[in-house]
Specification:
The complex is a heterodimer of chains A (about 150) and B (about 140).
Chain A (H helix, E strand, L loop, with lengths): L5 H11 L4 H15 L16 H6 L1 H19 L4 H4 L1 H10 L5 H18 L5 H19 L4
Helix pairs in contact in A: 2-4, 2-7, 7-8
Chain B lengths: L4 H14 L3 H15 L17 H19 L4 H4 L1 H11 L4 H17 L6 H19 L4
């Protein structure tokens, strides 16, 4: 089980309270597809992903981004139990979606950059370190049930 | 992975926006890397790594200068950083994984100080550029 200090929990929940999940989620997923174009392989049925503009404006990308980041919120509500929280999602990503777990790490790093741009100086080194730990733990939990 | 013409334009553009601040960005990226990825500190046992350290500032300046040199010779990064590449292969031998970590922290710093300029397209180009620099620095490792 991951150990979170009181300070880390505070840094996570206080920042999360200010995150616009829909906007942030949409932006994070769009940036993933733009910065690491090979990740588009999972979204063949999303329609037009032919350019950064198309990706940013794509309603399926926005909706899915929101879904993904909302699920992140579940981890934050269950910081002491993330593996259990994501158990079924992990199985889904392995057995049905066939997503290489490396993609979870890529998305985690993209999310950090989106948060950096949004919160700027408030996203200080301690905040970044805590959130990097969180995205790492989420990525690990999502990969945990792979077989 | 190849830098397209628009990648080069994007990278030159954002570096010119950073201007003289790029030295500070180098130091900040290093500090964030040390805090976020503690194993990276193992390469600097001889440094004071506390916040505001003069050594980290100086080293950040060096890192930034190398990046600027690469930008100024973006058509031949391998040529521009050849001596640095030798140094990393023969003397420093920093494990290749760490260049990705520093590159990521540099992106974070740019996002913090130039959020409007770091559009998704520029983000992609800058990420590619930083990867290219890392690749050059580790190219002679074996």
């Amino acid at each position: 089980m991951v150990h979170w200090s009181a300070e880390e929990k505070q840094l996570i929940t206080s920042l999360w309270g200010k995150v616009n999940v829909e906007e942030c989620g949409a932006e994070a997923l769009a940036r993933l597809l733009i910065v690491y174009p090979w990740t588009q392989r999972f979204f063949a049925n999303f329609g037009n992903l032919s350019s950064p503009t198309a990706i940013i404006g794509n309603p399926k990308v926005r909706a899915h981004g929101k879904k993904v980041l909302s699920s992140f919120g579940e981890a934050i509500k269950n910081l002491d139990n993330i593996k259990t929280t994501y158990s079924k999602l992990s199985e889904l990503h392995c057995e049905k979606l066939h997503v290489d777990p490396e993609n979870f790490r890529l998305l985690g790093d993209i999310l950090i950059i989106v948060l950096s741009a949004h919160f700027t100086k408030d996203f200080d080194p301690a905040c970044q370190a805590t959130w990097q730990k969180l995205v790492g733990v989420v990525a690990h939990a999502l990969a945990y049930k792979y077989h | 992975m190849v830098l397209s013409a628009s990648d080069k334009t994007n990278v030159k553009g954002i570096f010119s926006k950073m201007g003289g601040q790029v030295e500070n960005y180098g130091a900040e990226a290093l500090e964030r890397m040390f805090v976020t990825y503690p194993p990276t500190k193992t390469y600097f046992p001889h440094f004071d790594l506390s916040h505001g350290s003069a050594q980290v500032k100086a080293h950040g300046k060096k890192v930034a200068a190398a990046l600027v040199e690469a930008v100024n010779h973006i058509d031949d990064i391998a040529g521009a950083l050849s001596k640095l590449s030798d140094l990393h292969a023969q003397k420093l031998r920093v494990d290749p994984v760490n260049f990705k970590l520093l590159g990521h922290c540099f992106l974070v710093v740019v996002a913090i100080h130039q959020p409007a300029a770091l559009t998704p397209e520029v983000h992609a180009s800058l990420d590619k550029f930083l990867c290219a620099v890392g690749n050059v620095l580790t190219a002679k490792y074996r």
